[in-house]
Structures are given as structure tokens and as C-alpha cells.
Design a protein that fits this description.
Number of helices: 6
Distance between the termini: 94 Å
Number of strands: 3
Shape: flat
């Protein structure tokens, strides 16, 4: 038996290093699919028909125990504009983001039941002054209490109370 000059090598080539960047560089950018709506239904509807479908959708959320979504959509102010645009007004960004999670399902339900595939949504965040500040400083709390009961100001001055202390 004759001895080999070199070790017998397998032809399997192992990659030197694994780099996620190389994988993501090769991914093609997705192009948005434009749907041809020319043959889709476009029946007109009124506000009462819309409110009926809306109420059914919101009640379904409640029955499915999707409470955060139900609360967000239940508190929205809804306006029908130009027969095709529906404006949803929310009091906070968190309610709006909860709506975003349900937007596709709502759009499908409206298109199916109202037989109109040209409906569009617009979301607005109301900038009402009625929004309460939930975190208040000790000074703010004291001022509110002093407005209701002015004797507190006199007691604060007479006893030399400091509102900023943690004692």
C-alpha cells in the first residue's frame, strides 16, 4: 500500500463567515400592488347604513373579547365626508394605533357590506383642551385643592409647609 502525499480533501466548501447583512442586501424591495378597482362595486350609501355596519363591527370586537380595540373604536368620533371618505377622530395617539390594528378588518367589512370598494379612511388626533393630565406634581394638586378650599393657603403659610419635600 502506498501512502498519499496529501490528505484526501472533501470538496465541500464551508463559508468563511455568516453575515446577515449579505442576506438582507440580496432581498428585493417589494413594490406596492396596485389593485384594479374599475370592475369593483361602487354603490352609494348613507350615514345610517355606515353607522349600522360600524356598530356591528364594534360589537363583534366586544364579543371576541378584544377589549382594547373595542374601547378605542367605541370612543372614536366618526364623520362621513364626500360619501367616500370616513374620518375617525381619536383623543389620543394610543387609541389611534389601536385603530390601525383593526383598520384592515374594518375596511373589508365596510367594503363587503356597503358594496363599495372606493371607501377611504382618514385618522385625526383631536387636540382638545379637555384632555386631562394624569400625572400631577404636588404643587398642581395643592393648587387645585386650594381653589376649592382657600383656607389651605392660609394654613400653608401659617404652618410654613413645604410642598416640595418628600417627608
Amino acid at each position: 500500500m502506498k501512502r498519499a502525499d496529501k490528505p484526501i480533501s472533501t470538496k465541500k466548501e464551508m463559508p468563511v463567515s455568516f453575515n446577515l447583512k449579505n442576506i438582507f442586501d440580496k432581498v428585493e424591495e417589494e413594490k406596492p400592488v396596485l389593485e384594479d378597482r374599475s370592475n369593483l362595486p361602487k354603490e352609494s350609501f348613507n350615514e345610517n347604513q355606515f353607522i349600522t355596519v360600524w356598530s356591528e363591527f364594534v360589537e363583534n370586537l366586544k364579543l371576541q373579547k378584544q377589549i382594547p380595540a373595542y374601547n378605542a373604536l367605541h370612543t372614536a368620533k366618526i364623520t362621513l365626508k364626500d360619501e367616500l371618505k370616513i374620518i375617525f377622530e381619536f383623543s389620543s395617539l394610543s387609541l389611534s394605533s389601536e385603530f390601525d390594528l383593526q383598520k384592515d378588518a374594518l375596511m373589508r367589512a365596510l367594503r363587503e357590506k356597503l358594496k363599495n370598494h372606493y371607501i377611504e379612511f382618514e385618522v385625526q388626533i383631536s387636540k382638545s383642551e379637555l384632555t386631562q393630565t394624569y400625572i400631577k406634581s404636588k404643587t398642581d394638586i395643592f393648587k387645585e385643592m386650594a381653589e376649592k378650599n382657600p383656607i389651605l393657603l392660609r394654613m400653608k403659610n401659617e404652618f410654613g409647609l413645604d410642598l416640595n419635600s418628600n417627608d
